[in-house]
Amino acid sequence: MDLKNLIKRQKMMTTVLTALCPLVIASVFFYGWRTIAVQLVVMLSAILAEYAFLYKEKKPVTEAVLVTSVLYTLTLPPSIPFWIAVVGIVFGVVFAKMAFGGFSKNVFNPALVARAFVYVCFPNYMTIRWTQASAGFPGGLTKWLNPMVEAITTATPLIRYRSEGTLTELSSLLLGNIGGVMGETSKVLILLGGGYLIYKKVAAWQIMVACLIGFVGTGSLLSLVTGSIAMESVLYGVVSGGFLFGAAFMATDPISASSTKEGKWIYGIIVGMVTFIIRGFSLFAEGMMFAILIGNTFVPLIDELVKMKNNKKKAQKKGAVANG
């Protein structure tokens, strides 16, 4: 195959990559140039994994695999070993995408399947080893990788809150100079990227809003019923961890998300509800990853029920017109 035709360009995927670029650059500033090295290694591995399934048919690799690579890498800690990052992306591409028939046929988000795999198989690297974030210029632009943190007080905001009940300053959460994974720290850049996707009509704003409604609504209800959950912690949860990143870039994946109008709201609310429940009542500090994968599971059923309901309404309307 001609090298120029190795990757099939997809306008929608190009838009998503554009929205992710600021987060990639921010990861370098906060943690060091190693983040770019991980991105490149993961991207090459993903391309080779997909190409292995397509080369006999002489079909090009889709640009979607680049989006999967970037999204997956941005959910990893900066210090993740290269071989673990590679194992994850290969698993995600092979078993969550190509095993289902390739692009547009996958049920689950491949990037999240990849992350879930390494999260379960290599928990020490995904939940304990964190890198100190840079606060001022030039940040990590002059470093390969910032120093590792040793105390729980300098770990991620969610881990700090779960272990000590300490709330990280809102300014730090918005700017991103906090410990965490490569692309989920700067909430300002995430919101800008999500807004850009909405502006370009690539991501469904209904899903993003529904995720927020599901999360805040569940937290508010439990706060009123049990009295053990403070509303402050509910609102804090929105700007902590990977909630906003997942709502803007992962839950809105057009392939694994709901495609019907009503289904988008139902799907998003499920994701938000499950995220809060996992965070509040499980051993996991985070929950967005598992919530989206659970939501993906229900998408076919949700869309089918919505279509059946709409078809029934159309049939009743036609019957009323015929009888009238």
TrEMBL record:
Chain ranges passing through the membrane: 12-30, 82-100, 202-222, 234-252, 264-282
InterPro entries with a match to the protein in the record: NqrB/RnfD, RnfD_bac
This protein's record includes keyword Flavoprotein: yes
Keyword 4Fe-4S set for record: no
Keywords (A to Z) from UniProt: Flavoprotein, FMN, Membrane, Phosphoprotein, Translocase, Transmembrane, Transmembrane helix, Transport
Top-level taxon in the UniProt lineage: Bacteria
Record-linked PANTHER family: ELECTRON TRANSPORT COMPLEX PROTEIN RNFD, NA(+)-TRANSLOCATING NADH-QUINONE REDUCTASE SUBUNIT B
Official protein name in the record: RnfABCDGE type electron transport complex subunit D
Species name: Filifactor villosus
Source lineage: Bacteria, Bacillati, Bacillota, Clostridia, Peptostreptococcales
